[in-house]
Amino acid sequence: MPDNKHIKYILDESQMPKAWYNIVPDLPTPPPPVLHPGTKQPVGPDDLAPLFPMALIMQEVSTERYIEIPEPVRDIYRQWRPSPLFRARRLEKLLDTPARIYYKYEGVSPVGSHKPNTAVAQLFYNKEEGITKISTETGAGQWGSSLAMAGAMFGIDVEVFMVKVSYHQKPYRRILMETLGATVHASPTDLTDVGKKVLASDPDSPGSLGIAISEAVEVAAKNPDTKYSLGSVLNHVLLHQTIVGEEALAQMALADDYPDVLIGCAGGGSNMAGLLFPFIREHLTNGRQARFLAVEPMACPSMTKGTYTYDFGDTGEMTPLVRMYTLGHDFVPPGIHAGGLRYHGMAPLVSLLHEQGIIESVAYHQNPVFEAAVTFARAEGITPAPESAHAVRAAIDQALEAREAGEERVILFNLSGHGFFDMSAYDAYLAGKLEDYEYPEEAIAQSLTRLPQVEMA
Ligand SMILES: *Cc1c(COP(=O)(O)O)cnc(C)c1O
Questions:
Q1: Which terminus of the chain has a smaller tally of CB atoms within 10 A, N or C?
Q2: CA 457–ligand 1 middle distance (angstroms)
Q3: Would residue 53 count as lying in a domain?
Q4: Residue-wise pLDDT tens digits, 372-422
């Protein structure tokens, strides 16, 4: 019998998970290899060594089911972890639904999202290997501020290439990064060859995540004391986020309940994988039934509308080739899209699970997403990040479906962050100025013609 008294399920510090969960050994088929962009042969650990510390490379290719969380990382996690799991009782009532809606809230971290779960882990391993500087990219600034925070904690310099349009439109995240000690550039810059090339052909380029990644990678590749850090997509990033789902499993047990459907918004896939992977383990190895749902924006629907193939991770064609759902590495979503989740690809592990039918996906236009976010805020008092609002939309739709069907559906979603730095997007929505941008079919078709040519088994 589900607990019907509480709205909050909290674990004690001592109940915080001691290991991250690696889904690779439980996958129905092994993940396809990562390929060198020149030779198109599988890359080895040494190929990645200029960019990442060896400990993270070993996690990237690990087939161990559990990887112990180092004590210094757990010490920092303890400041906000275990994070709370809430039952959205007021939202249930407002929707007049027999569904039970739960959400795991990652907005309680110091910078307001799930991203510090991996930023802290990554900088710990870099520090261990004597690295003094980290370069990275950021879109809206969530990742940059998480890394800036971790850099301040470990005494590592953080250099951030921030997509130019966001740099100018979202000054508060830049100021937060600078407050935490990071150096922030508006990308494209003239500090890198990639940036110079882009500026030469388009001096007014608004930048893109793909360009900023290329710039950050170039800086790390050229400087021996500098490594690169990525806030999503890679296996080790998803691994670090699984602490979210491990906690949620224990919290659902406290609630004497188990989800029928799990939901996460998906940009690169990390917050969703963090919540879902431990439940997918239960599904694959213990036969516990549930549905797994990824939610994307219609302006950048990598899984819903993309192709499962080899592509570059960046616009500048500098990264290895990974097999993933992609819209093409030079696809840039329309500037009018305010909801985040703008990356052209999807994490390879999430892509594989989608290809195998284990993870489903759905894409929404931005107005219904913000409408759901406002409904949620007025019921639960928390204003979701625009990214997280995609998960809120899907959770509400599941609850409405359950009402129509008269069934007791149990819904769990990841509320990956709060939206306090995204008030201009809410402002545009409330003023009726947000446009639903049609799915950019033509731009995606164009971009897909420029995929690298790789023979696939
Ligand atoms: C960055 C971000 C996302 C999207 O990234 P994923 O890797 O797909 O999780 C989602 N929510 C918030 C709050 C973010 O900051």
A1: C
A2: 32
A3: no
A4: 999 999 999 999 999 999 999 999 999 999 999 999 999 999 999 999 999
